[in-house]
Amino acid sequence: MSVDPPKANLFQSMALGGCSACFAVNFTHPIETVKTRMQVSGLGIGETASSLYTKEGIGAFWKGLGFAWGREIFYTSIKLGAYAPVRDFLGAGGDAPFYMKFFAGALTGGVGSVVGNPFDVLKTLAQTNKDASAPLSTMVGAMYKDQGVAGFYRGVEANILRACVLNATKMGVYDLTKGYVTDATGWARKDVRTSFCSSFVAGFFMTCTVSPFDRIRTNLMSQPTDKKIYNGFVDCAVKTVRNDGVASLWRGFIPIWARFAPQATLQLLTLEFLYTSFGFKSI
């Protein structure tokens, strides 16, 4: 008689979630760098990538990677790793309504974004810094001098909204899709084929829902340190639409999808692998 494996507790799950995220970001960070540059410059993907390589070298694609690791440790460990324990605590496991799964994802995503916001700001500044003669430490020092600690929480409202929408979509769709895949194919929930299909579907829907929030967040976080162009999320959204049109909110859709799909797949496959390796129940 087989015995179901135990569920990872909150801290165990967060630790495994952080490890899986740090592993995945090494491969997807260059795509995000191109996406961030596209959102700021308005150039196409080919032109942006070519300019980045020609003017700044191959290493520029990994600008801000250290801050990305910090972000994954403090942000993704909560939004990804805490999802299953929080979902189960809320009674949203199994055949619970989809909105309960989305709520669990939104809750962990929102909390994680508050903790990880300083690393998001630093990562965005590093990715958008084209002047090699102006090191990031100088930019950070100027931002702290002008804005204090609040500078590291610039764009936090956009980041919280983005994280809630992102994680609700990512974990909710992933969780639901696993149920559909197992019913349609007979594969187990912990089967790597189930995880791969479910995470790929989640990556597409994440791109559709998150792109506008991602664009606004980038605008807020990349504005000059010595002056504010936007006064909060709503002001930034209005000015962005007024200046560039509604469609501009989905600018960078292809690189966002090119990042989200493999990132979600790598993160979730790695997390499921770690759950299994440590003898815990899968998502």
TrEMBL record:
Pfam families: Mito_carr (PF00153)
Keyword Transmembrane helix: yes
Keywords: Membrane, Repeat, Transmembrane, Transmembrane helix, Transport
Cell compartment(s), UniProt: Membrane
GO cellular component, as recorded: membrane
InterPro entries xrefs: MCP_dom_sf, MCP_transmembrane, Mito_Metabolite_Transporter
Gene3D superfamilies cross-referenced by the UniProt entry: Mitochondrial carrier domain
UniProt topology in membrane: Multi-pass membrane protein
Spans of repeat Solcar: 8-89, 96-180, 190-277
Family the entry assigns: Belongs to the mitochondrial carrier (TC 2.A.29) family.
Protein name: Mitochondrial carrier protein
Organism (species): Pseudo-nitzschia multistriata
